Amino acid sequence: MNAFSEIKLIAGKDLRIEMRSRILLSQVLPFGAIVVLLFAFALDPDRGILTRVAPGLFWITVLLAALLAIGRAFSIEQQHGARDGLRLAGLDGSSVFIGKAIAIAVQLVILEAVLGLTVVVLYGVEVHGVVVLVATATAATIGLAAAGTLYGVLAAGLRARETLLPLLLLPVLAPVMLGATRAFEDGLEGVPGDAWPWVALLTVFALLYTGVGMLAFGPLWEDT
Amino acid sequence: MSEKRLNNDDRSALLPRAVGRVVDALTLVSIGALTFFGLWASPADVVQGDAQRIMYLHVPAAWAAYVAFGITTLASLLWLWPRTRSAVWDRVAGASAEIGLIFTGLTLLLGSLWGRPVWGVWWAWDARLVSTAVLFFLYLGYLAIRAVPAEPIVRARRSAITAVIVFIDVPIVHFSVNWWRTLHQKATVFNPELNPEIHGVMALTLWIGVVAFTLLYVSLMNRRYQLAYLEEGLEETALDAAILQRSGGVK
Questions:
Q1: Complex ipTM, two decimals?
Q2: CA-based nearest residue in chain A for residue B159
């Protein structure tokens, strides 16, 4: 089996489990939506604060929901010796990494689309600079998925993984959160020129963590 | 017992005993010198007054933290490289990260104490402050991974890879935070070069501080390394004792 079909196999497997269990639709998405609603309770919705800080609130919500999706991506292999089975299948570590990261990325894209729409409607955001927004979201999603998969396997199989994963992941993802928020702000304010350096930063982050993930996933995965 | 250890390189101490003692003594002497120069010999700053003396601890602590995290990364890479793989590097990486975290915490705390009288606030969203805070949490996560019990070799590999991933993030955090505070804030309230020109006794005091903290780092490293070695031995002894007890009970 070549690398491409291995990747397709793993990504297909994870997405098929998601299609059947519908955890993303029935739990993660509603969680994101309630967070978006709670921000309106915390910040006065009448004074336009929500509209101004919408990019930051959007990315915080995505980050929190992504933590759930990443945890889920590894807990599905917890039972019935699924992880051992997968390891014995003789797949290449880097293919498993890319496959799992793609499955997480697909879920994140759905999450971002739905939450983005919710934010636009509830916070009264006028959408400008669609090209910049899409470019930002793409780079940020790949970065989130790559770093998330890498830390996900690191925490997988550990006893305190539910509490460990956020502590490990959130500081590492701080630059993604920062860059994506600024790029969205610039895009929405109609100055897309200012956003491109941030998109470049997000792209560097995505490439770096994809590369490190391909190298490090195999040995980590063997140990879980 | 020793054959169960991760590697043949079963070094129980980083420094020879005599060298360790000399370092300890020099550390004490330099801390004494720093106290004298920092509190008495150096003049109070014209603008900042006595609060400026905090800098004699703040700057060396930040320096020692960078050294410590650098050594953690280096030791982790040496562990990952098959030819240099040794339990020694795993212990060095862990010990150095712990000490680095203490120094980073100290840097933040001292900076905050200094900021209150000079800037008028405990905390400011200055680029250096923010990236130092993120650095603190990055290595807190690294130590959390280290704290999870596992087979020595599994734990060492997991820790070494984490250290490298964390280190890659440091420059990205640094750049992003710097951009953030410069792209959107045209005029910075707080000049990052607070003391562009310091001369004479003040500069000397700062250098003594750097030497004292570096020695303190080496001295603490030596002790923390020994402790890590003993901890590993204790784990094994406890395990052996438990097995003996069990088998004794069954007969």
A1: 0.89
A2: A154
